[in-house]
């Protein structure tokens, strides 16, 4: 499982965050491995990234729960949790998913 988990409320925000992580991840040695998982796209490449192992997962709550329930990943190593735009996530009704994660 990842060391850091970033939970944004939307796919668009997840992709923006991934862009920043990618830019900074290339600067580290060894390079920070990361993936961005969200609904509305194929699970196959996302699952492949998880199988290879990543230090950072950027994920929307629903798709992350899918992968956790299917045991594609776990949060046993997760030390850092970022709830990006937490107020917006709560306003959008994500509280049950956040609690489940």
From TrEMBL:
It comes from the Eukaryota. The keyword ATP-binding applies. One of its GO terms (molecular function) is hydrolase activity. Keywords: ATP-binding, Helicase, Hydrolase, Nucleotide-binding. Residues 1-101 form the Helicase ATP-binding domain. PANTHER family: ATP-DEPENDENT RNA HELICASE DBP3. It holds the Pfam family DEAD. This is Putative ATP-dependent RNA helicase DDX17. GO terms for biological process: regulation of gene expression. The gene is Ddx17_1. It comes from Bactrocera latifrons.
């Amino acid at each position: 499982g990842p060391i850091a988990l970033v939970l944004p409320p939307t796919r668009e925000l997840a992709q923006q965050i991934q862009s920043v992580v990618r830019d900074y991840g290339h600067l580290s040695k060894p390079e920070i491995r990361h993936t961005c998982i969200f609904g509305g796209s194929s699970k196959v490449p996302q699952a492949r990234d998880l199988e290879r192992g990543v230090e950072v997962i950027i994920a929307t709550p629903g798709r992350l729960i899918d992968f956790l329930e299917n045991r594609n990943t776990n949060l046993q190593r997760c030390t850092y949790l970022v709830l990006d735009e937490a107020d917006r996530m709560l306003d959008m009704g994500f509280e049950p998913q956040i609690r489940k994660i």
